[in-house]
Amino acid sequence: MQNGVPTAVPCIASLTSVPRLGDLVLRDKNHDCEGFGVHHICVRVEAVAHLPTRFGRFEVVAFWNNRDGKEHLALVHGNVLGADNVMTRLHSECLTGDALGSLRCDCRDQLAVALERLSSEPAGVLLYMRQEGRGIGLLNKIRAYALQDQGLDTVDANLALGFHDDERDYAVAAHMLASLTVRSIRLLTNNPKKVAALEAHDIRVTGRIPHVIPANEHNRFYLQTKANRSGHLMEIPPAPTVSEQDDPVLVGEADALAGG
User: Fold this and answer.
1) Which one of the listed residues 168, 186, 202, 208 is annotated catalytic?
2) In whole angstroms, how far apart are CA 216 and each of 123, 191, 223, 226?
3) Which domain holds residue 116?
4) What is the largest CA-CA distance in the chain?
5) pTM of whole model > 0.70?
6) Virtual torsion, Cα 179, 184, 190, 196, nearest 10 deg
7) 57, 104, 166, 208: which one is catalytic?
8) Does the residue 150 lie in any domain?
9) Residue 123 domain-assigned?
């Protein structure tokens, strides 16, 4: 307290260990810290519930934060409290892919495969970040799609709309991991920028696990752009060349068929 006014406690000091995931709600009930990182981000665990899924059993953790006003989630498998080397996936919301099954991206498959892998681990966590369209929002994402329909790639479409290639901010995600008292993670990603962003916020990343989804005819160019222009560590082969017919027709056979 300074001059009779209560002062906020350091953020990390306030994120004490608890025996059970549900106890995080009570721990954070009056959580009001000085902020995490240069943006003074404060995150609170607001609710925890069971979430059985087609991929396995998870606990869903809902967070409040003072950074973007969005309701980010963590899907937790096993006991991650105070754990080391927890397999972790940061998944950015994609309504068109996750919910509507769009083939323009690999988001739905990345989400499904990540949850399958996490459910096979002793402990794992997926952070579902409400950062639609690499942070530009749903409306601008559809605008970017329209530009891509005219020939621009995903990077140039964002630039044409006045955005950076990637507008996402992982400071809230870093605080979410700290709130879960995860000590270190193995990050399921092809994007080295995610590793660097988390490490910049004092999250200890002990390894990177590739997360490559095979391309389809609709997203191949998009994935190649991510690899060639956005620095994602993956190799996307060109579309296979398919001949018009499997077996060549000899001239003599063709003439016989024509005459017959």
Assistant:
1) 168
2) 31, 20, 10, 15
3) 11-131+168-259
4) 105
5) yes
6) 80
7) 166
8) no
9) yes
Question: What's the pLDDT score for residue 244?
Answer: 55
CB atoms within 10 A of CB 56: 18
Asked, for residue 151, whether it belongs to a domain, the answer is no
Strands of the sheet with 185-188, listed across from one edge:
43-53, 56-65, 73-77, 124-129, 86-92, 185-188, 205-209
Collect all residues with Cβ–Cβ distance below 8 Å to 23 and sequence separation of at least 6: none
Residue at 137 is within a domain: no
Whether 50 contacts 43, CB under 8 Å: no
Counting the structural domains of the chain, the total is 1
- Active-site residue flag, 166: yes
pLDDT at 124 over 90: yes
pLDDT category at 252 given cuts 50, 70, 90 is low
Identify the bridge partners of residue 253 per DSSP, sorted by sequence position. none
| pLDDT at residue 246 in the model | 53
Burial class from Cβ neighbours inside 10 Å (0-12, 13-18, 19+) for residue 187 reads: buried
Using DSSP's 3-state secondary structure scheme, residue 201 falls into: coil
Asked whether residue 248 carries a pLDDT value surpassing 60, the answer given is no
| CATH number of the domain to which 101 belongs | 3.40.50.10990
Helix (H, G, I), strand (E, B) or coil at 258: helix
